[in-house]
Every structure is written in C-alpha cells, then in structure tokens.
User: Which sequence fits this backbone?
C-alpha cells in the first residue's frame, strides 16, 4: 500500500485556488482604485478588495502547511501574487497623486530585484524568506490598507495634520524596513555565493 505521505499533491487544491483568486483581484482592485480614486464609496470597496486579497494570502499558507498541500505552483505564484497586489497598490496611489513616486520606485525595485535575484542564484542555494522579510511584507500590507482608506476624503480641503503624520511615519517605517531587509538578502546572497565557490575550489597543495 502506498505511503499517504508520499501521495502526490493535486495541483487543483484550496491554497492554489486562493492564490489564483488573489491574482485575479489585482486588475479588479486596480480598476476600482484608478477609475474612482476620490469617490468615498468606491475607495471603501477598493480597500475591502485589497484586504480580502491579504486575507487569502494568510489563509492559503496556513492551509497548505497544515494539510500538506504545498506545490511548486504555490511556491512560485504565491509570492508573485503578493507582490502583484501590493505593487498595484503602490503604483495606484502614486498615479492618483497620494504617494510620491520615488517611494514606489524604491520599494518596487527592491521587491522585484530580490525576486529576480532568488531565481538568478538558485544554483548557489535557496534564499528563503527570513523573519525580517516576513515582517516587511506584513507591514507593507497593512500600511497600504491604511493609505487606501478614504479617511482623508472626509475632510475639505486637506486631511488633518495628525492623520497625515501617522500615515507618513508608518510609510517611512515601511520604506526603511523594505530597504534594510533588501540589504540583508544581498548579504545572504553573497554568503551563498562564497559557500558555493568554496565547494568548487580544490584544496591548495601542501608546500614544502
């Protein structure tokens, strides 16, 4: 009788379906935000859509690990779906003029640069997500949700300084941890390279 632990994981499973839903929500969320940026009702709907996408990210990982439903599809597309939905939020907020473009550019260069680096150095070893990277993802997600909320639209002509200050400080913290964790991954990539090179280098012949 085959060992249940070795039973192949079906590609069509709940975690993968949730990942696909998150990917499909990216253009839907983008349309809601960009087509109705200053309509309070639509901003609430866009924010709710973004939060639903965040929840699917949390749930699919829990289910995959608990029920041993981890697949190569999930390993590849789950982080891509995460970066796609958060990337759409950063770009959308910049397009409608609520977030400076330089912040969006720095964060996206870091995000997709590290993703590309992971694929580029796969022969050296696997660069797994560390605690800092996971904290960065969580902070980005919920700070973006705060920025998407239409709280500032209830005030005319400008949002109060306390609200601007809170949002600014949290986004600054997000930018800082994003850059710092990116540097950590670069150091980890160098360590992987050094270990890989050391394995390939023959021992030096003894002198005498």
Assistant:
């Amino acid at each position: 009788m085959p060992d249940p632990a070795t039973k192949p994981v079906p590609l069509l499973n709940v975690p993968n379906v949730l990942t696909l839903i998150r990917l499909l929500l990216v253009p839907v969320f983008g349309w809601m935000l960009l087509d109705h940026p200053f309509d309070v009702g639509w901003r609430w709907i866009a924010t709710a859509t973004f939060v639903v996408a965040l929840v699917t990210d949390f749930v699919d990982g829990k289910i995959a690990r608990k029920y041993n439903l981890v697949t190569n599809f999930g390993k590849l597309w789950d982080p891509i779906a995460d970066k796609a939905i958060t990337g759409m939020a950063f770009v959308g907020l910049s397009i409608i003029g609520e977030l400076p473009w330089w912040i969006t550019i720095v964060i996206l260069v870091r995000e997709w640069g590290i993703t590309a680096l992971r694929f580029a150095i796969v022969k050296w070893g696997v660069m797994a997500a560390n605690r800092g990277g996971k904290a960065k993802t969580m902070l980005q997600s919920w700070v973006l949700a705060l920025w998407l909320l239409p709280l500032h639209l209830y005030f005319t002509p400008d949002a109060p300084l306390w609200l601007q200050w809170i949002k600014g400080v949290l986004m600054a913290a997000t930018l800082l941890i994003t850059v710092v964790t990116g540097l950590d991954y670069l150091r980890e990539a160098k360590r992987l390279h050094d270990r890989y090179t050391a394995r390939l280098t023959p021992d030096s012949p003894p002198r005498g």
